[in-house]
Design brief:
Layout (H helix, E strand, L loop, with lengths): L1 H20 L6 H8 L3 H4 L6 H19 L1 H4 L5 H4 L7 H17 L1 H13 L4 H28 L8 H21 L4 H19 L2
Helix pairs in contact: 1-2, 1-4, 1-8, 7-11, 8-9, 9-10, 10-11
Amino acid sequence: MEQKNTKAEILDAALDLFAINGYESTSMSQIAKAVGVRKASIYSHFENKSEILKNVVQMVLDGYNMNSIFANASWDDSEFTKDKSGMNADDYAKLVKGHIRYIIHDPYVRKGRMLLVIEQFRNEELSQLQTKMNYEDIMKYFTGMINYLIKQDILVDANSEIMAAQFCLPITTWINLCDREPDRENEILELIENHIKKFFEVYHS
């Protein structure tokens, strides 16, 4: 149990440091110091820093796949959409804002996002993961949502991908702003709510 806890502490400390300093600028000595163990002890759990990064990324991915609405959505599945029939602009604003609070406050999601932002131009694998998690999965989710709302005759029948981009891409910009300036969270959540309501007003069928 102690060995397992130490391994988890190493990964937590590495994520903290990678999210702030980046992977290349973080040393094994810094990780060891953050955990409170000797550097040699790190190597009893991980072969090298690359293996630590691999495990850190997997830890973030496991949380993402378990909790993210973007990873688990299927708008063509009646089981997934059964509780979404009859939802209005206020309901969707509440849904999106609730998930944004999770994205902003969950430490693994927030630090994982910071790591991907730092490493996206230096690590090809993390660059692809950044594109998947912070663009492709988001666009897929909201394009599916828009198509569902069009079929429900709630929104006008137009280019759903463009509509999804207009809906979600400003929100990703506000999330990035909140990462940099967390004291503006309430202001940003209000902006997002007003943005969603205006979107439904403009595209209402």
